[in-house]
Structure formats: structure tokens, C-alpha cells
Amino acid sequence: MKMNTKKMGLAIGLTSILALAACGDNNDGADTSNESSGNDGSGLNEITGIDGGAGVMSAAQNAIDTYGLDLALQASSGAAMTEALGNAIDNEEPIVVTGWTPHWMFTTYDLKYLDDPENVFGEEESIHTFTRDGLAEDAPEANTVLDNFYWSEDDMGEVMLDIQEGTDPEEAAAKWVESHQDQVDEWTDGVSEVDGDSISLAYVSWDSEIASTNVVKNVLESIGYNVEINSMESAFMWAGIANGEQDAMVAGWLPLTHQEYFEDYEDQVVDLGVNFEGAKTGLVVPEYMDIDSIEDLK
């Protein structure tokens, strides 16, 4: 009888332990699921950025400091950033990226900007066209087209999405130009054709600037220019225009993203004005993440 009592006690003890373990597993499972998904931002250790010279990267580092975030800012490229974003969304994993509008990723994915109560990223921006000093005298026809160039988010989005879906940038630009000839005619109004004159356009490899630069290239070629386009980081693009190594760009983001470069080279470049309005930068996350503000990343 004594042996049976011990066995019974052992059995009861084991049953109780297993029951408690089961309860603990259920509770831990719920918590672990939340922690592993990190969709409240708790599982993140970095912000996925683009090239280190971009103004949005400086603003992102400023946001880390201003909001006291325990996150590292990882520099990469626009293409690497969107690849990381797509992979995270495929697996419904948490991710924060440096984002900007216009960009095809907002058409492809359900994304949201995180609120920025400290206004680190500033208000909406505009994209400006800049030329080297003297281009108006050396290439007046090209200068007129560049001065007239202006389009909307829908226009740019059409080209960007076409490129993202696999169309060669030059082909996507030519397709847009062909289907928007009335708009292009406004840019070339009163412009005479030239005979193979050369002109160079600098740009940063952001999807928005790939789209705009290739469209301008196509239009300039249609009036007889031999156009060379050169991809480079923001710092080199501004320096190239300022020192005359590059003729023009349609990729100057102001007043925030390229503020530092504009201040450095303002007296050495010519601002032809805005070619796109309503641009925006900030920290971006997938809609499924349960956060709404940069403060939630603490």
C-alpha cells in the first residue's frame, strides 16, 4: 500500500507539472509569437537604408538620435532596400526602411509612413532641375526642354511601375513619351532640332530619378541630341554639375534631402525650378506592422 501511495503521488506530481508546463507553453507561445514576429517593432535592430550620401539617410540618423531609438542605420542601395522590403513582406516579417514618394513600392505593397511628431523629415519636398553654369548659352535648345520639363506623380508612377515589372528603362521612357505626346510637345514648344550635339545628364539610382532621367533623355534625343546619362551617388552628382563635368540633372530634392549639397554648390549651379511637386521622405513600414509612429520604435 505504501508503494502504491508513492506511485500515486508521483503520478499526480507529474500530471501537475505537465499541466503547468502546458499552461506555460500556451502563454509563452502567445508571447513568443508576438516577439518573434516583432510586428510591434520590438524585434527590430536596424533600419534598412539606401546609399549613405542621401539626405534621407541623414534624416534617418537624426530620427534615431532625436527619438532615442536603439536601432542601427544600415546603408545599402535603393535596389537592395526594396529587395529586403519585398522579402520581409513575403514572410510577413517586421522591417523599417528609409522611404520616399514617388516610388513604385507604394503601388506594389501596402505600406505606411510612420508619423513623425518631431518633424525630423520635414514637410513635402519638390524635385528641381539643375544645370551647370553656361548651359543656356552652350545648348539653348536643351536648356529650354529642361526648363519646361514638369510632370506629375501619376506620370512618374507609370514609368516606374513599368520598369519595376521588367521593362528596360529606356523602353519604358519611350513608351511613356509616345503615349503622352501632347505633354511632351509643351516641353519642346519652339525648340529647334540640333545635329548630334552632346549633352550629359547625371542622376542618382533611385527609381524616381531613373524614370525622369530616361524620359528627358528620350525627349532630348528626339530633337537631335546625343545624350549620355550617368548614375552616381548624390554627392558626386552635385559636384559634377557644379564643376561642369555634367551638364544637367532633374534630380535635386529640396529643401531637405539635398539641402547640404545645395548649400555647398548654390553659387555654382543654375536652378531651373521645380519639375515635380509633392515628394516626401520618411520611415516606412508594411501595413501589417502594429505601429504608427517613429516613437513606437523605442
Write up what this structure looks like.
The N terminus is likely disordered. The chain is α/β, with parallel strands linked by helices and 298 residues long. The protein has twelve helices and nine strands. It is 47% helix and 20% strand. Strands 3, 4, 5, 8 and 9 form a five-stranded antiparallel sheet that branches. It has a two-stranded parallel ribbon with strand order 1-2.
Record the SSE blueprint.
Elements: H1 2-37, E1 46-48, H2 55-67, E2 72-74, H3 78-90, E3 97-101, H4 105-108, E4 111-113, E5 125-132, H5 135-138, H6 140-148, H7 153-164, H8 169-179, H9 181-187, E6 198-203, H10 207-222, E7 226-231, H11 234-242, E8 248-254, H12 259-265, E9 269-286
Helix pairs in contact: 7-8, 7-10, 8-10
Query: Can you count the beta strands?
Result: 9
CA-based shape: globular
The secondary-structure element order is HEHEHEHEEHHHHHEHEHEHE
Backbone CA Rg: 27 Å
CATH C-level class of the largest domain is Alpha Beta
**Could you tell me the mean pLDDT?**
88
Could you give me the name of the CATH homologous superfamily of the largest domain? Dipeptide-binding Protein, Domain 3
Q: What is the CA–CA distance across the termini?
A: 61 Å
Signal peptide: 1-21
Main location: membrane
Protein name: Glycine betaine ABC transporter substrate-binding protein
Subcellular location: Cell membrane
